[in-house]
């Protein structure tokens, strides 16, 4: 919004949002000598950004050149490389590789995992390794992702001012379109804050905007298992300032359950094997399969961890339906008794406590969140599936288990446990995930791109809002790694900027 009037207050740098990206940007700008104000629309009590729902994984390139090759390959569909800024990918690789050293300098703790790039068919996947944050320096009473707790601690120990309960409404611009401040709204009214150096957009995506999801995502409904406060505010502000958007129609997607009870309206990740992680673990995996609306398997369960949503896009043009929405998760008593059906170490049923999941799944069964039956035929009837088709699907799957080879989809043999017994269960699954990635496009210096070419002066972005991850996601922890990396890039470049004659 073009603004020529006075400001109620002026600081060097305003950071919008206090997730991981906003926290790192604020700390970096502060340590570079800037006066920093963080504006956060959530109240301090119960502050739940997406970063707090995460498990704390972050990926680290152990070979920068290999990581550049890997990320570049993710943009090539049918062998054609889309328009990608090589400098941006190089900045990502170099800066994410520096994340462990930055954490070391600031007292962060982590462990290295035996997990590599998620797409072994692409060159360079071995150059990526996944780390996991350990608790270190969280504020008193904090519960949630240890990385976010650590970063919140860094903000607090520096005395950086955080204005909670304050929503950013407009980016204020001068006659040339350069950003010179922010208009905010809080209980006591409107406040216009000027900046001497720059503004960092780190307000997250649009997971909780049904309007934006319907407009931009290729499939609906989609349910996300994070904060209910990510309503696309940054997209609105960026568009009004003339930003170019990208990656609005993609996201790192999963199959998610949805239990609209106990006040939480988002999605919830599932624990397919009862192992407490995406893989089956060391124990014998219980029997589980996914079937579509025709009662047939269509995927090597559980699918690619952050690209499973791509399997759901097969539309039946004759009926104008998506036969794979919902997908039905079918399992037996062994899986029911193994462990909780959803993760309780992260996500809405984790430490943030949006709702509580019982240890034995019985409370959720009584609520009707899990569909039970005494036979495969009865389960099909409960789910509205063709009984004969589901019985045939289960019989064929059990035959694969007996042979030790999934002839249909090549599922990992260690997970080929037959379905059996006298109790069967089903849970409907939907497309979803942890976060969206669309938003204002950024460059290697975290500057927001203008729709007219070049960049918007004094405007920077970091985090999932305008993430550089497009159709494919590198591996677990890609988002936190990007938050750390581009939080630093945005923070130091904003701190070094100058608005007008300031």
TrEMBL record:
Annotated coiled-coil positions are: none
Record Pfam families:
FAD_binding_2
Q: Give the keywords, sorted.
A: FAD, Flavoprotein, Oxidoreductase
The cofactor(s) it depends on are:
FAD
Q: Which residues form the FAD-dependent oxidoreductase 2 FAD-binding domain?
A: 12-479
Q: Has the keyword Oxidoreductase been applied to this entry?
A: yes
* Xref: PANTHER family: 3-OXOSTEROID 1-DEHYDROGENASE, FUMARATE REDUCTASE
State what protein this is by name: FAD-dependent oxidoreductase 2 FAD-binding domain-containing protein
Name its species.
Answer: Nonomuraea maheshkhaliensis
- Lineage, uppermost ranks: Bacteria, Bacillati, Actinomycetota, Actinomycetes, Streptosporangiales
